[in-house]
Amino acid sequence: MSTEYILKNCATGRLFEDTGWLLSDPQCVDPSLIRALYKKKQIDYDREENGLYRYADWMPVRRMLKGSAAPVTYKSEALAGHLGLKKLYVTFSGYWPQRGAFMKTCSFKETEAYSVCAHIPENEKRTMIVASAGNTARAFARVCSENKIPLLLFVPYDNLDTLWFEDRLDPCVKLICSPSGSDYYDAIELSNRYCEDKIHFFAEGGAKNIARRDGMGTTVLSATTFIGRIPDYYFQAVGSGTGAIAAWEANKRLIEDGRFGNTVMRLIPSQNAPFLPIYKAWNSAGRELEIMNAGEARQKSSSIRAKVLANRKPPYSIPGGLYDALSETGGYMDYATNDELERAKRLFEELEGIDIDPAAGVATASLIKNVRSGIIDPQAVIMLNITGGGEELFKKEHSVKYMKPLEDLSLLSA
Predict the structure, then answer these.
(1) Do both 245 and 343 map to the same domain?
(2) Fewest CB atoms within 10 A around its CB: which of 105, 259, 271, 281?
(3) Are residues 267 and 290 both part of a single domain?
(4) Measured distance CA(44)–CA(54) in Å, rounded
């Protein structure tokens, strides 16, 4: 199988063919995201047995990999009743067998990994490089291990506790850590040094990778196809904002599909205070994002509970990025403190019956604040993107192993 699409430069509108692993328009000097325009305008999503690939019509994939699971959407009763909402829908990515959710890394980062890895040309011999604050690394490690795809991960040393797995990883997956006290950006900087060796390595690309964004966009496809219409509001916690960009792009495709209405879904992404570069940029009413200095970023990233949200250089200002997504959808940035996210986590588990991760707690806390402030119409159709959950349940049911970084870098060639 191979999905048919062409690429569009978000800044200039230029259309061009994907000649390989393109992360930008090769004819454009100025930075811009590129976007996939799929030949099939009405998505066929009924193939549940295909896991995440039930949405393959709108993913730039060349094949289907084993082991994938799709996000699960359901209509909330308990949390919705607590908040006085009539149409609250939870899109859950994680491990919750009672709801049909079987992501074994307990994170929606699996949607990225299965899409990106299925986008890699089958004749690619080089090793893919992925930098991560933790959850993304866990997802890519599992997918690459099970499908024998060479992978080199870069993760901050202090986030090693996020790299747990049910099964021992294949040797094709290796890990290098940035030092203790470093943050996600430090891991990215370290990975960039290896990306300079284009003979042996290639960069996954992060937000620039259409496969990553279109994999994440399956959360909105799950919600919309379950509800039967595009939601009015979208809540998600963000570090880079890539998930919110992906939601916006999925929204565009669903409008073009024609079967789900023409609602422009209002994006309300949230960060974990005090790490708030995107929140501050949005409220400055300007397109530019002030890059946090290294010392401040490391201090603030170490102080937040949702450490996966600590990205000091997100794709905010770039054409096609988060600023454009928020502007076009009438959205805005929000935040939650550590105390607020912990209360939201406990409330969600008490009412809905499953544990959720700190980032999902941020999104839930933001929803609660917006409802109680009267901003949200109680009759509105609301999508709450729970980007990770069921870790406590999974670890009760399974024994897990933790990944260790390479101590001898000469083993990279092994």
Answers:
(1) yes
(2) 259
(3) yes
(4) 8
Q: Report the CATH number that the domain containing residue 92 is assigned in CATH.
A: 3.40.50.1100
Sign of the CA dihedral running 11, 16, 22, 28: negative
The span from the CA of 139 to the CA of 165, in Å, is 10
Residues 236, 366 within the same domain: yes
Same domain, 216 and 202: no
Q: What is the pTM of this model?
A: 0.96
What domain count does the chain have? 2
Q: How distant is the alpha carbon of residue 26 from its chain centre?
A: 25
Cis preceding-peptide flag for 231 (omega within 30 of 0): no
Per-residue confidence of the chain (414 residues) as pLDDT tens digits? 789 999 999 999 999 999 989 999 999 999 999 999 999 999 999 898 999 999 999 999 999 999 999 999 999 999 999 999 999 999 999 999 999 999 999 999 999 999 999 999 988 999 999 999 889 999 999 999 999 999 999 999 999 999 999 999 999 999 999 999 998 889 999 999 999 999 999 999 999 999 999 999 999 999 999 999 999 999 999 999 999 999 999 999 999 999 999 999 999 999 999 999 999 999 998 899 998 899 999 999 999 999 999 998 999 999 999 999 999 999 999 999 999 999 999 999 999 999 999 999 999 999 999 999 999 999 999 999 999 999 999 999 999 999 999 976 755 655
Query: Tokens at residue 127, please?
Result: 């090793």
Q: Tell me the C-alpha distance between 150 and 152, whole Å.
A: 7
> Is residue 174 assigned to a domain?
yes
**Helix 338-352 vs helix 358-372: crossing angle, to nearest 10:** 90
Query: What count of residues does the chain have?
Result: 414
CA separation for the pair 101, 92 (Å, rounded) = 7
81 and 118 fall within a common domain: no
The residue to which tokens 């530019």 are assigned: 288
